[in-house]
Amino acid sequence: FRHANAPIFTITKEGIVTAWNEHLARVSGVREADAIGMTIFDLAQPESCEGLQSAIDSCGTGVSSDSVEITLKGGATEDHPVQMLLTLIVQYSDGAGGASAERQTITAIGQDLTEIVALKAMQLRKTQITAVLGHELRSP
Questions:
Q1: DSSP symbols for 66-125
Q2: Which of 33, 44, 61, 136 could form a disulfide with 48 if both were Cys (CB 3.0 to 4.6 A apart)?
Q3: Are strands 83-92 and 68-71 parallel, antiparallel or unpaired?
Q4: How far apart are CA 53 and CA 46, in angstroms?
Q5: SS percent in the chain: helix, strand, coil, step 5
Q6: What is the mean pLDDT of the chain?
Q7: What pLDDT is stored for residue 33 in this prediction?
């Protein structure tokens, strides 16, 4: 997964990053060597941590989580931090996920939403400007 064209990382059940792929390093500005050993909570914006913790906790029940949206600190540009939709998948040591299996890692596969969120913000600004102009043109 290191060269995949999607943000992918692995974490322990405590949220400690154990792998960080090249795509994620490129879009986040955080090198793999810097990310490994940190918690994902240190790398995410505070408002993302509660939902992320809930998703990790649900993985503890042996069920892969629903998708969770997070925002990473920093990013390629400070104006537009990296926003991702993550799906967390539990990996077991025996590969089967049976009752006796011990969970090893959680793999997070993401979809980069940064450009989509920026586009929506730009469309909102455009709508607001259009509304102001329309109001000004109607009002003498």
A1: PPEEEEBSS-SBTTB--EEEEEEEEEETTSS--TTPPEEEEEEEEEE-HHHHHHHHHHHH
A2: 44
A3: antiparallel
A4: 11
A5: 40, 25, 35
A6: 81
A7: 93
pLDDT digits (tens, 9 = 90+) for 109-130: 988 876 666 667 677 788 788 8
C-beta separation of 90 from 103 below 8 A: yes
pTM for this prediction: 0.72
The pair of structure tokens assigned to 11 is: 């974490």
CA distance 59 to 122: 36
Q: Are 15 and 59 in contact (CB under 8 A)?
A: no
Q: Which amino acid is at 66?
A: D
Confidence label for 67 from pLDDT (cuts 50, 70 and 90): confident
User: Per-residue pLDDT tens for 68-107?
Assistant: 989 888 655 555 578 888 989 888 766 555 555 565 689 9
